[in-house]
Design a protein that fits this description.
Helices cover 70% and strands 8% of the residues. By secondary structure, it is of the alpha+beta class. A four-stranded mixed beta sheet has the order 2-1-3-4, sandwiched between helices. The longest helix is centred in the last third of the chain and has 48 residues.
Length: 228
């Protein structure tokens, strides 16, 4: 397979010239066999290029600009798609060529294959686990009667325990009447303590008022003595 690069050798556009040099220089660095086809001096090359570029890849005016890249008769892309492939280390895939061993494209392709294999293995493992779970379901169904018998026996034992516990609750409620006098005694003691605290507070307030009055009388006497 031969890579065809359609160029315009006599183009007056500096941007087109730089794009063409970038494509050719990169292909030479990769040692990719390619052929340059000039559309400026050869009308057949120009017509063939325009006819074989897909309509969705053509600009709004319908005239594709060089450089345009083909693999034999298959369209690869223009400079923008070539640049994107170069940035992604996927130029060989862009050109439709098998990457040489040890190249970045080959390493990337091997990594992608490894990821796909791991995903496939994980899916197969999950499917096997799901099938095993489905196989175990009938065993649970066969043991359902045994589990039901155990549940019934546990419920019967639980009912007997509840019946035995009821008299204890009744005894507790009957004995609760003896505790009421003790609660009343505690309440009376609390009321007495509150009354004693209120009396203490009143006495302290009265003592504070007396001290304030004594200080005021003392200040008045000293002021009269100083006035005399």
């Amino acid at each position: 397979m031969v890579i065809k690069v359609f160029l315009a050798t006599s183009s007056g556009s500096t941007a087109i010239k730089k794009k063409q040099q970038d494509v050719v220089g990169f292909l030479e660095a990769l040692k990719v066999d390619y052929t340059q086809l000039d559309i400026a001096c050869n009308e057949e090359n120009r017509m063939w290029m325009r006819q074989n570029v897909p309509e969705e890849k053509k600009p709004s005016n319908g005239i594709p600009l060089p450089p345009q890249i083909f693999n034999e008769e298959s369209y690869c892309g223009d400079y923008e798609t070539f640049f994107d492939a170069k940035e992604d280390n996927s130029v060989y895939a862009f050109l439709g060529l098998a990457p040489p061993p040890g190249s970045k494209d080959a390493l990337q392709a091997s990594n992608e294959e490894h990821i796909v294999e791991n995903c496939t293995h994980a899916e197969e493992t999950n499917q096997e686990g799901t099938q095993d779970d489905l196989i175990e379901v009938p065993e649970v169904d066969r043991n359902g009667d045994a589990y039901a018998d155990e549940d019934e026996t546990e419920e019967g034992e639980g009912g007997e325990e509840e019946d035995v516990a009821e008299p204890e609750e009744n005894n507790a409620t009957e004995g609760g009447g003896d505790e009421e006098p003790e609660d009343r005694g505690h309440a009376e003691e609390d009321e007495e303590q509150e009354e004693e605290e209120e009396l203490r507070q009143l006495e302290e307030e009265e003592e504070a008022d007396i001290e304030e009055e004594g200080e005021e009388e003392y200040l008045e006497e000293t002021q009269e003595e100083e006035a005399e």
